[in-house]
Known about the structure:
The structure is a homodimer. The first copy, chain A, is α/β, with parallel strands linked by helices. Chain A has helices at about 10-20, 45, 60-65, 125-145, 150-155, 165-180, 210-220, 310-330, 365-375, 380-395, and strands at about 5-10, 25-30, 35-40, 55-60, 70-75, 80, 85-90, 95, 100-105, 105-110, 155-160, 195-200, 225-230, 235, 240-245, 250, 255, 260, 280, 285, 290-295, 300, 340-345, 350-355, 360. A six-stranded mixed β-sheet of chain A has the order 5-2-1-9-21-20, covered by helices on one side. In chain A, strands 13-12-11-17 form a four-stranded parallel β-sheet. A three-stranded antiparallel β-sheet of chain A has the order 6-7-8, with no helix packed on it. The first copy, chain A, is globular and about 70 Å long. The N and C termini of chain A lie far apart (about 45 Å). At the A-B interface, strand 5, helix 4 and helix 10 of A face strand 5, helix 4 and helix 10 of B.
Amino acid sequence: MRRRVVIVGAGFGGLEAARRLAGLDVSVTIVDRRNVHVFQPLLYQVATAGLEPGDIAYPIRSVFRRQRNVERVLMAEVTGIDLDSRLVHLDGGDHVAYDVLVVAVGATHSYFGHDDWARFAPGLKTIEDALEIRRRILGAFEQAERRPGDADRLLTFVVVGAGPTGVELAGAIAEVAHHALVGEYDLVDPRQARVVLVEGGDRVLPALPAASSAAARRQLESLGVEVRTGAVVTAVDSGGVTVAGGERIEAATVLWAAGVEASPVGALLGVDCDRVGRVIVEADLSLPGRPEVFVVGDLASVPGVPGVAPAAIQMGRHVARQIRRDLTGAAREPFRYRDKGTLATIGRHRGVAVRGRLRLSGYVAWVAWLAVHIWFLIGFRNRLVVMLEWAWSYLTYRRGARVIVERE
Amino acid sequence: MRRRVVIVGAGFGGLEAARRLAGLDVSVTIVDRRNVHVFQPLLYQVATAGLEPGDIAYPIRSVFRRQRNVERVLMAEVTGIDLDSRLVHLDGGDHVAYDVLVVAVGATHSYFGHDDWARFAPGLKTIEDALEIRRRILGAFEQAERRPGDADRLLTFVVVGAGPTGVELAGAIAEVAHHALVGEYDLVDPRQARVVLVEGGDRVLPALPAASSAAARRQLESLGVEVRTGAVVTAVDSGGVTVAGGERIEAATVLWAAGVEASPVGALLGVDCDRVGRVIVEADLSLPGRPEVFVVGDLASVPGVPGVAPAAIQMGRHVARQIRRDLTGAAREPFRYRDKGTLATIGRHRGVAVRGRLRLSGYVAWVAWLAVHIWFLIGFRNRLVVMLEWAWSYLTYRRGARVIVERE
Lengths: 408, 408
């Protein structure tokens, strides 16, 4: 019987692993709680009314329509993983058996022990998160028009955390306020909005060289974003945030981009994890003592490897190669991460890019960012629609996805 | 002081009234519970994974960006209308005062006294409804792949009501099952789905001439839709529907397109209504004894006028003209409805169109439908994106908006 490979999670890591198994004599089952793969790097554009969810989502089944060894794609929640019996338990009581398991369930936000902050400061990991953030951002302008006396608080947007997501969110909100909505309100001017980027560390984009951080900061400030580094948030509530030292920022909208921790599904493995819940793995990304179980992407704790899409993709590819080598009896190889560089966009004609010794900022970095993101999107339709949306927004300074979807 | 015109509801009727007031020396305030105008005739395509909400929604403020006498656009729920004091009360406790009021809040589904059916059989009036229906349709195929033994029930889709919405929904679901999803499942074949269109009357599209109804029925059947006329639904529950005579159709997905009633906001007027809650109006569409209050669109009870978009638009235009005439001292005119005909699409190359004595069906009707819907969409961006989506779907037989947005 062919080896049964079960892949849990169809993010960047899981999807790449499955694709790289094409042509191999194994039977692949993919389990994900969604029916689509979501291109997370563009979620912030869904949140800021630039794109619709469908533009950055692609049905998992459609990806594997022509890959014959992908025998099943299941939309299901994983409720348990039994390493001894080699079973993945699903909601509804059924299960799938594996010979090789790839766990690629990713990460979620971390509020550093303050889970009660979540309802005041949503993070950005899912499509539902993005629609919630869009609802809050656009809703704040609508509320301000109704209660202009309260506009200072209503039009203050605090983004906590200045990693790539926080920087991109803050830049996009500033663009919405300073361009997309201008001229549409009567009692408030969207340009009076304050966008405050709060970072506990001493600079934005701390993973980048200091010169790139400085360039990013300058560009954020040129867009009108107030950058507050060295500002550790000590409280978040319905009225705003408090930072260490006691300073208070009154804000109707607080968004969380400060920390991630491993998905709780990882804990179902019942194995050793690091401080943020990521699973400790061997050099080949398998579990200690369980060579048939691999962990890839943000869930894997691999020293020196950041939680970014290119790392997840490389891990997925590596695991597919090890599965292939196992079949031929070749020895496992250790995973080696190749840093493909970092790109962040800050707004029109603004961005930073670092690759090896190459450091770009401004217009060139922005163009590189556009090209790379279009390139890595899945599906001709999504590429075309996203390019069209971007071209339209570029020419008109407007945003095409301003519908507020109500909570139910 | 300039007359204050308050328009409640920015659907087809309210939007048209506001636009037609352009240039007039009045101050216009528009109140809607959403931030966008929704192009309802294409909601069924959002529900069937063809379009995203943003493609058929346009920010109300953007419509009036350049119309100077639209002084305020408020996103608010109306909680009360005080005809004597001429005040519209809003959620949050504030209010707006009017000299002339246009109430254009539209209709909602009617379950004919069986409101408990609503959770088993959602209707299609809002973007949230459309996303819920999309979740149920696509979710049913996902569930069937997990439990193929239960596929018969899971892949039976019952649409109750064969007016234009029911016909278009049933046709689109059949296309999803027979084309868009084919080849993507391993244990079930989407083509085994049953789509049953249940209608209490004796033919589909009962508002059209009998020959057009017959043509629509033939085209539905050629798509694989089972058309059941003369079948009054007597029960809806989680397992399916029961029709008069006791026949039971087991179905995981039941959708409601059978009846509408006036929006409950209309009842806030506290005036005489007809059987389905529509407000009785004078010949000029004003309230009896309240010439300063107009009712337009689906909320107005006007004999011989159907609850369709062209009628709402004509009423909006009529009311704007009466407001203009009032300013010059001219007498009010009665509203005259001009039947612009009816168009319904059933699927690729299929449709019916009736205008006066002209009756089209099949390819020509389908092309007419496409052209009219693109024409009436608001905004260059939306037209372009919708045309692109349709072209892509036409060429590939696929659907670009398959993301299931989770309930919260």
